[in-house]
Design goal:
Protein name: Aldo/keto reductase
CATH topology: TIM Barrel
Structural class: alpha/beta
Bound molecules: NADP nicotinamide-adenine-dinucleotide phosphate
Keywords: Oxidoreductase
Helix content: 25-40%
Strand order of the largest sheet: 3-4-5-8-9-10-11
Low-confidence stretches: none
Shape: globular
Strand content: 15-25%
Radius of gyration: 19 Å
GO molecular function: oxidoreductase activity
Distance between the termini: 31 Å
Mean pLDDT: 96
Number of strands: 11
């Protein structure tokens, strides 16, 4: 496993991290086995992955609790734990985005309790709330950093304009945005800004939320409650087109004697500004496959070949 430095910190993160929205994330995926979720995290930590991504909203706290159970079996200093706040769940079951400083402080305290930790290494503002100025929300996170409750500040789901405002004082170490072979919109503005401004770009949905796992066919149907129904790549005509591209990528992966998910991960790691990927999943067998991507590389010719497949998507 190769490790990279999270920008503006001395934290070393494994290039292959772990996404845990399906670890106890019952609000996002149905019928999850929590025992499998625990095994998934443990398998990753036992195999060189030290960068874990969770959020308070995953399973409305349950993902953090399960991650916390496993993390305490390992040496704290070796791990880089990232979580996110700003999604306030209300008693009626609805979720409100809240960036108020007092709310963020309380949300972090609750996350620390669930994770059974004194600090988190990276704390992301999960979504902007459109009301609170970034000077206030990021200012609140900067104070939490001074107090030692977080080591670095991240942000997610923002436009370039919002990112610039949030990073006005250079506080942001990491941006988490959607980016994968099938959705390259981050390359237009966000990724170049991160490269120029010393921010680690951490793509979410690195396997296009499962499409680049290679198991989808035109007959695959998501559960009605599955949040991925809202992702355009899974919808209508685009879904069919996507599967054609996936087939071409699979063919190329086979020629290279690798798998499509590994090709998708190493392709992301080859992009300047991407310091780690955080593939998610529900099964521990995924881990041993996905970590192999860190041992791979792509030549300039191979990157060009892939580019030509992708521009025709
Ligand atoms: N900041 C945000 O707003 C935001 C939004 C979304 C996600 N995230 C974070 O990003 C992480 C990654 O995104 P994601 O989990 O949604 O999507 P993803 O990593 O692109 O895809 C996950 C899917 O890929 C499948 N998969 C993983 N490894 C595979 C392999 N080797 N072969 C075949 N299939 C494989 C998993 O299948 P199985 O389920 O069958 O194992 C799962 O369905 C999340 O877990 C979360 O931590 C953040």
């Amino acid at each position: 496993m190769k490790y990279q430095t999270l920008k503006k910190t001395d934290l070393r993160i494994s290039e292959i991290g772990l996404g845990t929205n399906a670890v106890g994330g019952h609000n996002l995926f149905q019928n999850l086995s929590e025992a499998d979720g625990i095994e998934f995290v443990r398998e990753a930590l036992n195999n060189g992955v030290n960068f874990i991504d969770t959020a308070d909203i995953y399973g409305v706290g349950r993902s953090e609790e399960l991650v916390g159970e496993v993390v305490k079996e390992f040496k704290r200093d070796d791990l880089v734990i990232a979580t996110k706040g700003a999604q306030q769940w209300l008693e009626d079951g609805s979720v409100k985005t809240n960036n108020r400083p007092e709310y963020l402080r309380a949300a972090l305290e609750n996350s620390l309790q669930r994770l059974q930790l004194d600090y988190v290494d990276l704390y992301y503002l999960h979504f902007p709330d459109k009301e609170t100025p970034f000077a206030e929300s990021i200012g609140a996170l900067a104070r939490l950093k001074e107090e030692g409750k977080i080591r670095a500040i991240g942000i997610s789901n923002v436009s370039l304009e919002q990112l610039k405002e949030a990073n006005a004082h250079g506080d942001i170490s990491a941006l988490q945005s959607p980016y994968n072979m099938l959705d390259r919109s981050a390359e237009e503005e966000l990724l170049p800004y991160c490269v120029e401004n010393n921010i680690s770009f951490i793509p979410y949905g690195p396997l296009a939320f499962g499409l680049l796992g290679g198991g989808f066919t035109k007959d695959t149907k998501l559960d009605a409650q599955d949040w991925r129904n809202s992702v355009p790549l899974f919808q209508g005509e685009q879904f069919g087109k996507t599967l054609e591209t996936v087939d071409k990528l699979k063919e190329f992966a086979a020629q290279k004697e690798t798998t499509l998910p590994n090709l998708a991960l190493v392709w992301l790691l080859a992009q300047q500004g991407v310091d780690a990927v955080i593939p998610g999943g529900k099964r521990k067998e995924r881990i041993l496959e996905n970590i192999q991507a860190s041992d791979m590389s792509l030549s300039k010719e191979e990157l060009n070949f892939i580019h030509n497949i992708l521009i025709n998507n």
